[in-house]
Design a protein that fits this description.
Blueprint: H1 2-48, E1 64-67, H2 71-82, H3 93-99, H4 117-120, E2 137-140, E3 147-148, H5 164-167, E4 173-174, E5 177-181, E6 200-203
Antiparallel strand pairs: 1-2, 2-5, 3-4, 5-6
Helix pairs in contact: 2-3
Length: 204
Amino acid sequence: MVAMAIIGMLIGLLFPAISGVRKKARLATAQGAFSQWANGVTRYKQTYGFYPSIGTKYDTTGDSLYSLESGTTGVNFIMALAGKNPEGSTLKDTDRKTFNRNAEEFCAFAKDDFEDYSTNTATTGVLMDRFGNHNIRIIFDTDSTGTVKAVAGLDAAKTPPDLSSIASGGTGIPARIIIFTTDLDIGSLEGLEKGDVADVIAIQ
């Protein structure tokens, strides 16, 4: 009985440690995926001379914020970076003209990048991080200052502490592209709790 009790205690101690290791591994994978997306945006900018216009046309007098949980914005983002539709088909001429005129692949999206690959790729194109959070925010330095700051529409209450200076109107962050999700932005629709996720940030 004593031995069983000791084993039970050891198992109880091991579970949190294993969970922490898994969370760190998932965070590293998530950050890697976001970094690939950011690299794709950088290559897009280098090729075309401007950032992809994936939502409301951006204003070059300030930085531009996009929320990818919107199906339309997510699909536009994929078409711009992948040079094809989310399910892999060729872009229509009108979409090529709007998002990626050479249909060049700047970034490849994996099945794990989608909330539900089988349905989302053909319809809404909802992307998510490796924790299952699809509240993905992307900021482009569309005013070309080399610093992202005072972004219009960015909710300070849903911005990771590491990015607080861009939500509070502070000095900002030297960056051209920022992609992030955060445990502060978890809603009831995801079925996630704060402890299930982590801040995922890619800055370039």
